[in-house]
């Protein structure tokens, strides 16, 4: 079987159509006319010898081959974008590193990691990029970030190298005026079944939300205000509560699964600054382990 090369332009065209499932919207998104977009997709199908899209009066749908190409195309485009950004940074000769982390998460740990990096004899300039829930993986894959602080089992770690830094329990963030806020500890079943305070729903790895009465959230500021107003509660890693408002109370959820904070990076990275930062993360982990052993 002859393997046909695919151009980057063709991948971008196909991804737009596959995500929009509408040629008109895809053409508008790409800034081109619809007829050349349709021709490009048909030419791509012809060269590959497969049908990527089912087209009928009801609209456009992906075939199994189309679903496979969508996954591979997005990965390939991310890799190309990452290669471009990292090449440009290398050419600039900058000793800098972009670290992405969810806003409000593991604040004290972040401070320790930055302090450890700054303590080097020839410190690297670490730029902190704050994002919303679940965005770290995409920013790491497309080269916007060099390393990421992420959380197992909630974040998408597929394809990354990782080092565990901190494993901890979780707490419920509640409105201060709510009766549960006076408790010393809670069970997961209790916080998942509060009639007047439905638990906030975070996006899954595929971007969809689980069913439930609670509000869909991914913005930290919106979430904090909803809790303060008595509209929702949430369960998060204990170290992520640094952003909580005075009108919030954190109560340990003793049977919630532990969450592990990791430093993640692309396995293809040959960056010495990335390697140095990972070594510092390991040093921070070892100091935390010693501190925990002394406290216990």
TrEMBL record:
GO terms for molecular function: DNA binding; DNA-binding transcription factor activity. GO terms for cellular component: protein-DNA complex. Gene3D superfamilies: Periplasmic binding protein-like II, Winged helix-like DNA-binding domain superfamily/Winged helix DNA-binding domain. Residues 6-63 form the HTH lysR-type domain. The keyword Transcription regulation applies. Keywords: DNA-binding, Transcription, Transcription regulation. It comes from the Bacteria. The keyword Transcription regulation applies. Belongs to the LysR transcriptional regulatory family. This is DNA-binding transcriptional regulator, LysR family. It comes from Lentzea fradiae.
